[in-house]
Write a structure and sequence with these properties.
By secondary structure, this protein is of the alpha/beta class. It has a single domain, classed as Rossmann fold (3-Layer(aba) Sandwich), CATH 3.40.50.720. 45% of the residues lie in helices and 14% in strands. It contains seven helices and seven strands. Helix 1 packs parallel to helix 2 and helix 3 packs parallel to helix 4. The radius of gyration is 19 Å and the shape is globular.
Length: 264
């Protein structure tokens, strides 16, 4: 009997990285569930996916930083056994010194970048495990590896995304569920418009297109990368950093204060 195509969920799908992921996943044969705040843009994207790829796209309009909207979307997704892919792309950047930044800006970044990603992952993961198949793509950032003046909260949220993804990868080893963390560097998206650092202020040579970013991320996924950094040419740098991180962690397991502290 014919079966329906699997569903891929993309959050923050109304523009930028999310819209490109929706296009590429449709090209790979998935129907889509598109989640974002802007209904008109989602409708236009759904029409393009149908025309270009012959794929169906359901629209879920929601502000994932709002707890009520987030809970509603989580319930809807958890009840749908056709979902096999979750792209946690929705995100927010407010780049400003923490001491003077509005508290609402900090809390909204935490709500969208951390809370929504965590809740939607937990809504779908039990079903993925029960069916022994599924893919979770978490969009982090190279600023999860580094902090710049003004990025304390944003970098903190993206550091969470990276380590959350790493933890899931360990927990899900040996199952049919895959988790990929993607760490873009500067990418030409609308996130910059309200970030406090307009895209026009960046060196154009350092900014990647959304199409290149997503295509590289999907190539990394196909190659089995657990963590993909699209602009990183020398993979040895990542391997060295990972080896140093693991060595550092191992060196902490002594149960004793380091001699330099003079604690007896």
């Amino acid at each position: 009997m014919p079966t329906e195509p699997s569903l891929a969920v993309v959050t923050g799908a109304s523009s930028g990285i999310g819209a490109v992921y929706a296009d590429r996943l449709a090209a790979r044969g998935h129907d889509l569930i598109l989640v974002a705040r802007r209904a008109e843009r989602l409708q236009a994207l759904a029409a393009r996916l149908a025309e270009t790829h012959g794929r169906k796209a359901e629209i879920l309009v929601a502000d994932l930083a709002d707890p009520a909207d987030l809970a509603r979307i989580a319930r809807t997704l958890a009840a749908n056994p056709r979902i096999e892919v979750l792209v946690n792309n929705a995100g927010l950047a407010r780049l400003a010194p923490f001491a003077t930044a509005p508290l609402a800006d900090s809390l909204s970044q935490i709500a969208l970048n951390i809370a929504s990603l965590t809740q939607l992952t937990q809504a779908l993961l039990p079903g993925f495990l029960a069916r022994n198949r599924g893919l979770i793509v978490n969009i982090a950032s190279v600023l999860g590896l580094e902090v710049l003046p003004g990025s304390a909260v944003y970098s903190g949220t993206k550091g969470f995304v990276l380590n959350f993804s790493r933890g899931l990868q360990k927990e899900l080893a040996g199952t049919g569920v895959t988790v990929q963390a993607v760490l873009p560097a500067a990418t030409a998206t609308e996130i910059w418009d309200k970030s406090g650092l307009p895209l026009a202020h960046l060196d154009a040579k350092t900014v990647m297109t959304t199409e290149d970013m997503v295509d590289a991320a999907l190539a990394g996924l196909d190659q089995g990368e657990a963590v993909t950094i699209p602009p990183l040419a020398d993979i040895g740098l990542w391997e060295q950093a990972e080896a140093a991180r693991l060595a550092l962690f191992a060196a902490t397991r002594t149960g004793q204060p380091a001699p330099r502290y003079g604690v007896k």
